Each structure stands twice: as structure tokens, then as C-alpha cells.
Amino acid sequence: MSTVSEPDGVEAALARLKDLHPKVIDLSLGRIRTLLDKLGNPERRLPPVLHVAGTNGKGSVVATTRAIAEAAGLRVHVYTSPHLVRFNERIRLAGSLIADAHLVALIDEVVAVNGDDPITFFEVTTAAAFKAFADVPADLAIVEVGLGGRFDATNVIPKPAACAITPVSLDHKEYLGEDVAGIAAEKAGILKREVPAVIGPQLDCSAAAIRRIAREARAPLHMIDQDWTICRQTDDRGADYLVYRDTLERFDLPMPGLPGAHQIQNAGVAVALLRHQDEVVVPAAAYRAGLEWVRWPARLQRLTQGSLREVLPEAATLWLDGGHNEAAGQVLRRHFSSLDPDRDAFFLVVGMMKGKEHADFLGAFSGLAEQCLTVPIPGQENTMRAGELAGIASAAGYPAQPAASVRSALKRLGDACPPGKRPVVLITGSLYLAGEVLRENGTPPV
């Protein structure tokens, strides 16, 4: 029988949890419902919840929604996954990352209450987050789906204030299905009766699947380009801004603080999500302030300082992004296609996990990357071998070689840059790799 231990650090608590319940993916709601019932059903005592699913952009939508809500003076809980450097990043209580002692006590309590019943790592941590959210006062909770939607452990909230589905693409096919329409249907499983749902850009097949599930669930949909729109405009002085419209109002907004053209649509989902719920009040000024100061690590994050940045020449720019599927690759390609080939030399450092669409992701950079160095992801048993990954990159049409580490890759790329050109380096391929980069660079999320 499991026993409660004395708090002795988050890593030790997580190690005990993994020993008891290996970190496997087994999508089901029965186990967590039983566990939450033993805990007194904290999922029924949460502040108003915004539930966010999708393939690409979920984290950015969550971060932008949180920034806007906090700019409105609201106390906001946030649950996301995975973390980058510290597990505490997954649970934000009323604006701050959960404290170590609180997290350890929660994990131990949940494990003890669960006893010897079958459970997964993610189910335990989700139950712990919901227990914390129920115990600590807040005005709003933003909950990101872990994987899929219909059978994800977060999908036990009886009636969220609103839901959102960001763009759906192929990912986790071994769990969610082999086609985009099927994956979209799984993600639309979060939709609830009479709960408004904001839908971001979708392929025709995924939009049709979402509409079908919404009809069955009797969930009202608010679709981009039909019920709400967001677009970039340029004023008389040449400055860009955003125009948001829905059935009630039109207003101007600043460009989002997150870089990349794709963040315009993510910002629109966040704005629409808050505008289509009626549990909390968000003034217009909060939308503007939140968009300006939102930050989200490892999503087109420019690293301007740190031990890894110092490896590159002063004229270089270093970017970090955790993208790992074809849609993410195309977003990154569009962003870096604006580089001046006469002045900039674009390089990739890539590490990926097994089971991903390696060729589709790497193929997005064909004709753009001058060279790619592939690396293993430290501490991950399921990391793709650097040599094998280099072969896939080479087949995509650009030179690629394996490197022992990110640090050695950066050193080699800095030395390889043609004279007179500025190195532009993107480290990408995995959020696990991004977390290791932020850790080694000395710039963890806060």
C-alpha cells in the first residue's frame, strides 16, 4: 500500500510516483474519475474553467489568455504540459508557479488516496492540479488538454465556462488516429452541452468533424472567419496592428508580444475565448495590455543571453522552438523565410523523439537551411539517434551531420558561417530538447 512521505523535494516525489505508476499513456476517464471521487471531487469546485485543446498553438493560446485575464486584474490558475525545465511550470496558482513543498504534499496526498488502484502519471498530476485549484481561491482557471481531448484526463470538468480548439494536424497518430478528421473528432470530445466553443483555423475535414461532434454534444460553435475574425492592418505611419471583429463589436489591438505571423490567429482564439464566456468581466484595455506583454518560452523564443548564446559570434541570432510536426515546421519556415540570403546564413540544430513525423518536419526547411546538425536529447530514452536523424535531414535536401550536443553543434555552426554573413540558428524539434536548452543556457521559465 502506498504511504505518504515527508516532503523532500519535487524530483524525489516525482521519482516515487514514476516508480509506482510508470509514465505511460493510456487514454481513459474511468481511473481519474475514481481518484477524484476519493479526493472529494475537486473538479466540481473549480473557478470558471477555460478548456483548450488542439494540435498546434494550444500553449500560445493559454499564455495569451492568461496574460489578458491577469491584465484585467483576475487571479488565474493555469494547468499545462509538458514542462520545460521544472515540473512546477505545469501548475500555476493564482499567478505564481506552485511552490515545491505544496507540490510535493499534493503528489503524496493523491498517491496515498489512490492506494494500489491502477493510475497513470498524468492522471495523478492532473488530480493534484485540480485539488490545488479547488483549495486556492482564484477567479479563473485555464486548463490545457494533455493529449487528444475525449479521453484526456482533463476532460472531467462538468461544465467549463468556454472551450477552444486550436488548429488540428497530424500528431500522436498511435493514440489519436491516422487521419486529421479522426484526430479532430477526438479533440472535439471536450465540447459540452451549452458550453460555447471557439474554433481556430482548421482544414475542411477537421472543421467538418468538429461541427459533427458539436451537433451531437449540442455545443454552440464560434468559428474563425465566420463568427469572429482577426487580421493585421497597417496605419498611416506604417505601424502594424490587429483588428478583431465578432458579432457584437470591432476593436483594434496591438500586435502580439509572441513573434511569428501564426500568433495573430492564436491571439484571436484567446480574445474570442474570453469574449464568448460570461463568467468573468474583461475590459477592452486588458486585451490590449495582455497581448503586448504575453510571453511563452520555447515558442519562437529568441535567446539573447546565456551560456549557449555565448558560444555563437556576437553577430549571430539564436532562436528556440519546440515544434515537432509538419504544421509546426511550415510555421517556422514561413517565419524564417523573410531572412536576407545575402546577409544571413540560416542553420538548424535539431533533436527529436522517436515516433514523430521526422521527414515531414525536416522537409519544411528544404531550400532554406544551409546546414543542419542533429543532436540527441539528453535524459530521454526515446530520443532519435542523431545519425539517423541526420540521414532524414539530408534526404530532405540540405547538408546534415550529427553532433554530440547542442553546445558542440553551436560551436561548429558559428565556425562554419560564411565570411560576411550573420549566423541565424534555430534549435528545434522537441519541447524536451527546448527544456534542456533553457536549463543549460541558464534561462529557465519563471
TrEMBL record:
Residues 52-273 form the Mur ligase central domain. It catalyses: (6S)-5,6,7,8-tetrahydrofolyl-(gamma-L-Glu)(n) + L-glutamate + ATP = (6S)-5,6,7,8-tetrahydrofolyl-(gamma-L-Glu)(n+1) + ADP + phosphate + H(+). GO terms for cellular component: cytoplasm. It comes from the Bacteria. Its cofactor is Mg(2+). Keywords: ATP-binding, Ligase, Magnesium, Metal-binding, Nucleotide-binding. GO terms for molecular function: ATP binding; dihydrofolate synthase activity; metal ion binding; tetrahydrofolylpolyglutamate synthase activity. Its EC number is 6.3.2.17. GO terms for biological process: tetrahydrofolate biosynthetic process. Pfam families: Mur_ligase_M (PF08245). Belongs to the folylpolyglutamate synthase family. NCBIfam families: folC. This is tetrahydrofolate synthase.
